[in-house]
Structures are given as structure tokens and as C-alpha cells.
């Protein structure tokens, strides 16, 4: 990891890690005769067996006697090599607290992300994090993605790479401590079966990882989508909305399944000599349950022709979003219908109709319109026959506008939504495509039929008006 993260209390972090090291030292197996100065056994079960120790491959462990496997347990004691990285890791998470608050100021509601109430009360973040690590309270691989998703919303995209390094470091520390501890348990138990003089250690509860997230909410209006992946169909999604000022606190806790079987299986493979060696194994031999599942890659949708426009209240956002559209592989062409500068006072109806007509005539696939609230441009665009324009400032509305309503025009208000959220919503909007075979298609057809009938009546009224 780079040393770019700034942290004024690095010494305090080191002192906290020293306490952790001392605690592990007190638990060292009695059969250990020395403490390795370089903890190359740090994550031994996630690496292939090579020449040397049957457990971790360290050249200094030449004996095949399983008793000497306890030497690997002591490798966790020496954390000196990792202190600097751990200090940077904690520094990175800690230093982004201000960035979190600044980012959500542009979004609206004030979210406060922390591990638990105890952290806020103690005021000692690094100690709390170290304490969480020793108790396996930090998230495991499959659940780190939840924190990553929140981080993605609140921070710039370019920070995610750094966060991935932090995540791997934390996971490596936790997985190393977990597997080394269970390896020692297995070693003692197997020795006890052969030598009755060796006492067996008491059974342990299956290990679990706990992920918790607390949210403090203070907003004029709250609209949230809750998706339950254990249910199918419409039952899996609930929409909750409050119609007034809301202040509250939400706790989210998730406990994983026990790791015991996975750990024991890996330990047995090492002890029995069935674990793949360096020649037949890939570099990454992390147990399957520790890996993040990557969904199958779907083909990219056809690039869109986009018309974009704004009035004098939306020039800033229009220019930013236009730059994003230009860089997107999901956009083939961009037609800017104005206004170029905030000094141009062309009224929003003219801009909205110009963009909507490009879509209605087939010269553009979709249009993106910005004004102060996003309402006026939507009203004006909907006056063009065949156009369905919506104002949306949240992910769920943007999604349903396309998938349920086949809306071709997205409208936003520069005075309503933060720029980072607007950019995120436009990125999502570009990826959605309406399915003409879906159940929603008939509903959209019904809207179009009503429009055709009413437009014919409107044309008749206009003809009568001309004769007056």
C-alpha cells in the first residue's frame, strides 16, 4: 500500500496492535521453541504447499512431524512486518469520515456510518477496529461488498481501488488468525488421539463473522427500496416512504454461516497431504466460501443516441453530465439543444420540446433535460406526441421509468439533486433497456392508444378554431 494516507495518530495504532500481539503471545502453544521474525505463515491455508514445511512451506520447518505444525501458530505473534500497512489501512478508513459527510451533503439525508455505538462513545477508532479484528467482528469476503457499495455512493470512483487494497489486508488478517487458530486445534486433537498424555482442548463454537451498520437519518422526506433476495417475484421488493420530516436510527446486522467446515476441510487436506502443491495449484487457493461470486458478464446493450438540453438554471449540471456521456461506451452520439451559457435566457419549454422532437422523429433514442427542479422540462416534453418524460432523482424511479414505463426522456433538477448522485443516476439510466415482451408493454400500449385518441380529438378542435 502506498503511504499517501495521512494520519496523526500512527503511534497510537501501533500501540493498539502491540496489545493485540501481546494477547496472541499469551496464547502461544507450549510446544513452540521460537518466534519467527518474519511471519511468512501469515495466511498459510490460502497458499500452496511448497518445499519445506508441510503446512506453510517455510524452509525453516523441515520436519514432517505434525507436532511441529504448532510452529506455524506462533507466526501470527510477530506483526511487526504488517504494522505499517495496518496503520495505513485504519488511517484510510478513518480519514474518509469527513469525505462521507461532505458527499452526502450533496445527496440530501445525513448518513453516519460507523461500526457501532461504542466507537462513537470511546472516540478511539483505531482501538475499536483492532478489538473488532480480534473478535472476528469485521466483515468476511461476501459481506465486504455491502460496505463497498456504501463507499461507492459516498466517495469518488477512483478511491475504490485503494479500498480494495484495504479490504484484502483486513480479510487476510482475519482469515490468517482464524485458520491458524483452527490449525492449532486440529494439531492438538490429532496428537491426543495418538498420545493420550496430550490433553484435548475443549470444543469451540463455530466461528461466524458479524457485519453491522448503523444509519442516523434526518431528512424532510425518506423514500427507500428494500429487496429481500430470499423471496421471488414482487414479494422480494418493498417500497417504504415517509411523507413528512423523519428522524430515526436504523441498525443493520448480518451474521454469516459458521466457517468451521471450510476451515476443518482445509486443515485436513494439509495434514493428510491432499492439498495441491505449488506446481498443480493456482496462486489463489482461497476456499470457495471465502470468494466473492462474480455474476456472468452480460453483453453490452446497443449504444444510444442522446439529446441533451437545459435552461439557464441547469447549465452547470448539463456540462458535467455531457462530459460523462461523451466518455461512456453506452452512448454513440450526443446532440446538445442548448442553452450554452447561463446568460442565455431561452425558456425551458423551447429547450424541452426541441429535445423531445428529436426523439419523436427518430433522430435520437433518448433525451436528458435539466432545469431548476426537473418538473417544467418534463411537462413541456410530454406535450410532444409519443413522448414519455419523467422527473426522477433516485435509482428506483430511474429504473422503473425505463423498465416499466418505457420513458425516453429523463429530467432532473439542479436545485434538487446533488451532482454526484445525478451522475450516478445517468450512468444507471444508460444501462436500462425496455423489454417489449414484458408485462409492462401492454400498459405502455394503453397509454399510447389514449394519446392517439385524444390527439385526434385535439386536431378536430384546432380545425374548428381556425374557422372562427
TrEMBL record:
Cited SUPFAM superfamilies: Ribose/Galactose isomerase RpiB/AlsB
Chain intervals with Polar residues compositional bias: 277-290
Gene3D superfamilies recorded: Sugar-phosphate isomerase, RpiB/LacA/LacB
GO biological process, one term: carbohydrate metabolic process
Region (Disordered): 273-302
Record keywords, A-Z: Isomerase
Cited Pfam families: LacAB_rpiB
GO MF annotation terms: isomerase activity
PANTHER family: RIBOSE 5-PHOSPHATE ISOMERASE, RIBOSE 5-PHOSPHATE ISOMERASE-RELATED
Family: Belongs to the LacAB/RpiB family.
Name of the molecule in the record: Ribose 5-phosphate isomerase B
Amino acid at each position: 500500500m502506498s503511504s499517501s494516507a495521512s494520519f496523526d495518530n500512527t503511534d497510537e495504532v501501533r500501540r493498539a496492535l502491540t496489545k493485540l500481539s501481546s494477547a496472541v503471545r499469551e496464547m502461544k502453544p507450549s510446544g513452540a521453541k521460537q518466534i519467527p521474525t518474519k511471519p511468512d505463515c501469515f495466511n498459510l491455508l490460502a497458499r500452496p504447499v511448497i518445499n519445506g514445511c508441510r503446512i506453510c512451506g517455510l524452509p525453516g520447518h523441515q520436519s514432517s512431524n505434525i507436532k511441529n505444525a504448532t510452529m506455524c501458530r506462533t507466526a501470527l505473534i510477530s506483526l511487526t512486518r504488517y504494522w505499517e500497512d495496518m496503520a495505513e489501512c485504519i488511517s484510510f478508513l478513518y480519514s474518509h469520515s469527513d469525505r462521507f459527510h461532505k458527499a452526502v451533503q450533496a445527496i440530501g439525508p445525513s448518513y453516519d456510518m460507523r461500526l457501532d455505538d461504542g466507537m462513537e462513545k470511546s472516540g478511539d477508532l483505531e482501538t475499536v477496529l483492532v478489538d473488532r479484528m480480534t473478535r472476528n467482528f469485521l466483515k468476511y469476503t461476501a459481506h465486504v461488498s455491502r460496505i463497498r457499495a456504501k463507499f461507492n455512493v459516498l466517495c469518488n470512483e477512483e478511491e475504490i481501488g485503494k479500498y480494495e487494497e484495504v479490504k484484502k489486508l483486513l480479510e487476510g488478517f482475519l482469515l490468517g488468525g482464524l485458520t491458524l487458530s483452527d490449525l492449532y486445534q486440529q494439531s492438538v486433537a490429532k496428537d491426543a488421539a495418538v498420545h493420550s498424555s496430550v490433553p484435548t482442548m475443549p470444543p469451540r463454537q463455530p466461528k461466524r463473522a458479524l457485519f453491522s451498520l448503523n444509519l442516523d437519518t434526518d431528512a424532510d422526506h425518506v423514500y427507500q427500496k428494500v429487496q429481500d433476495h430470499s423471496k421471488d417475484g414482487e414479494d422480494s421488493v418493498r417500497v417504504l416512504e415517509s411523507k413528512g420530516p423523519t428522524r430515526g436510527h436504523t441498525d443493520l446486522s448480518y451474521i454469516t454461516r459458521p466457517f468451521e467446515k471450510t476451515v476443518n476441510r482445509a486443515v485436513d487436506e494439509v495434514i493428510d497431504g491432499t492439498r495441491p502443491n505449488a506446481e498443480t495449484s493456482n496462486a489463489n487457493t482461497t476456499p470457495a466460501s471465502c470468494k466473492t461470486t462474480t455474476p456472468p458478464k452480460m453483453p453490452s446493450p446497443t449504444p444510444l443516441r442522446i439529446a441533451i438540453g437545459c435552461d439557464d438554471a441547469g447549465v452547470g449540471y448539463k456540462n458535467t453530465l455531457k462530459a460523462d456521456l461523451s466518455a461512456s461506451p453506452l452512448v454513440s452520439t450526443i446532440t446538445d439543444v442548448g442553452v450554452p451559457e447561463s446568460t442565455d435566457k431561452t425558456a425551458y419549454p423551447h429547450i424541452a420540446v426541441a429535445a423531445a422532437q428529436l426523439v419523436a422523429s427518430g433522430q435520437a433514442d433518448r433525451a436528458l433535460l435539466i432545469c431548476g427542479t426537473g418538473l417544467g422540462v418534463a411537462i413541456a416534453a410530454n406535450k410532444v406526441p409519443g413522448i414519455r418524460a419523467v422527473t426522477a432523482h433516485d435509482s428506483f424511479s430511474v429504473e422503473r421509468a425505463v423498465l416499466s414505463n418505457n420513458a425516453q426522456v429523463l429530467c432532473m433538477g439542479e436545485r434538487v439533486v446533488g451532482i454526484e448522485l445525478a451522475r450516478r443516476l445517468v450512468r444507471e439510466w444508460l444501462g436500462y433497456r425496455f423489454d417489449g415482451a414484458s408485462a409492462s408493454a401492454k400498459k405502455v400500449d394503453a397509454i399510447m392508444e389514449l394519446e392517439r385518441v385524444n390527439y385526434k380529438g385535439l386536431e378536430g378542435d384546432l380545425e374548428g378554431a381556425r374557422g372562427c
